[in-house]
C-alpha cells in the first residue's frame, strides 16, 4: 500500500491515547504518516489538580502532557484550542476544523463516535463529518457503551506503548488508566476470537457513497488463513 496520511481528530488531550493510539502506532510502524489534532484546550479537565491552578495553567499542563505522549508516537500534536466543554457547530469552530483538514489533506480520518458520552465528542464528530472529504472511522465510545464495531485492529504489539502514552496524562488520572484501557481492548480482542490477538481497537466506518471500501485503508495484518473452517456445532 502507498504511504497514507492518517489524521486523528480527537476532542480532549487523552482521548487519542485511550481510543486510537494502538492503531496510530501500527500505522506508524507500517511506514504511514500520522497526524494528531486535539480540538479542545482542556481547561475544564481539572482532573485532580488543586483549585489554586488556573484554567490557563491547566491548558499549558495538558499541552505538555499531550506533547510527551505524542512524542512516543513520533508526532507533534496540533492544538486547535477550542474552549473545553463548550463546543457547538458554529461557523468559527467549523472554520478551524476545515482549515486543518485543508492543511493536512488526509487519506483517512479517525474521530469520536457520534453517540459518544461527552458533548464535545459528539459535536466534533459532526464537525469532522461535515468538513471531511476522506473516509472517516469512528473510534469506540468511552468504555464501549452502545458501540458495535464494524472493524477491529489488532494492537497487541503496541499495547505497552499505548498504556505508556495514556499515563503521560498524569493530571487527569488519579488511578492508572491501565485497567479501563485493557478491559475494553481485551474485550474487542475476544470478539475477534483469534489466539494471536490479545488486544484490539474497534471502529465503525461512516458508510457514505465512495467510502464503503475504506476498510482497505486500515493497517494490514499477515495472519495465516485457518487450515479449515470447523462448523460451530462441532466446537461450541
Ligand atoms: Zn474527551
Automatic annotation (TrEMBL):
Q: Which SUPFAM superfamilies match?
A: LmbE-like
* Lineage: superkingdom: Bacteria
Which Pfam family would be a valid example here?
PIG-L
Q: Which InterPro entries match?
A: GlcNAc_PI_deacetylase-related, LmbE-like_dom_sf
Residue runs in coiled coils: none
Looking up PANTHER family in the UniProt record yields:
N-ACETYLGLUCOSAMINYL-PHOSPHATIDYLINOSITOL DE-N-ACETYLASE (PTHR12993:SF11), N-ACETYLGLUCOSAMINYL-PHOSPHATIDYLINOSITOL DE-N-ACETYLASE-RELATED (PTHR12993)
Name by which UniProt lists this protein:
PIG-L family deacetylase
Amino acid at each position: 500500500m502507498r504511504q497514507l496520511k492518517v489524521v486523528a481528530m480527537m476532542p480532549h488531550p487523552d482521548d487519542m491515547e485511550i481510543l486510537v493510539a494502538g492503531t496510530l502506532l501500527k500505522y506508524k510502524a507500517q511506514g504511514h504518516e500520522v497526524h494528531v489534532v486535539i480540538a479542545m484546550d482542556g481547561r475544564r479537565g481539572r482532573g485532580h489538580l488543586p483549585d489554586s491552578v488556573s484554567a490557563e495553567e491547566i491548558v499549558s499542563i495538558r499541552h505538555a502532557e499531550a506533547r510527551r505522549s505524542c512524542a512516543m508516537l513520533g508526532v507533534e500534536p496540533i492544538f486547535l484550542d477550542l474552549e473545553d466543554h463548550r463546543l457547538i457547530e458554529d461557523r468559527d469552530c467549523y472554520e478551524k476544523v476545515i482549515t486543518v483538514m485543508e492543511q493536512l489533506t488526509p487519506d483517512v480520518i479517525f474521530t469520536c463516535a457520534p453517540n459518544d458520552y461527552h458533548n464535545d465528542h459528539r459535536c466534533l464528530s459532526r464537525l469532522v463529518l461535515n468538513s471531511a472529504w476522506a473516509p472517516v472511522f469512528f473510534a469506540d465510545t468511552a468504555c464501549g457503551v452502545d458501540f458495535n464495531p464494524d472493524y477491529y485492529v489488532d494492537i497487541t504489539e503496541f499495547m505497552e506503548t499505548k498504556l505508556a502514552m495514556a499515563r503521560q496524562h498524569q493530571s487527569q488520572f488519579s488511578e492508572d488508566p491501565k485497567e479501563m484501557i485493557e478491559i475494553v481492548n481485551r474485550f474487542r480482542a475476544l470478539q475477534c476470537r483469534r489466539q494471536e490477538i490479545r488486544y484490539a481497537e474497534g471502529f465503525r466506518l461512516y458508510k457514505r457513497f465512495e467510502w464503503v471500501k475504506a476498510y482497505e485503508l486500515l493497517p494490514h495484518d499477515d495472519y495465516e488463513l485457518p487450515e479449515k473452517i470447523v462448523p460451530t456445532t462441532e466446537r461450541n
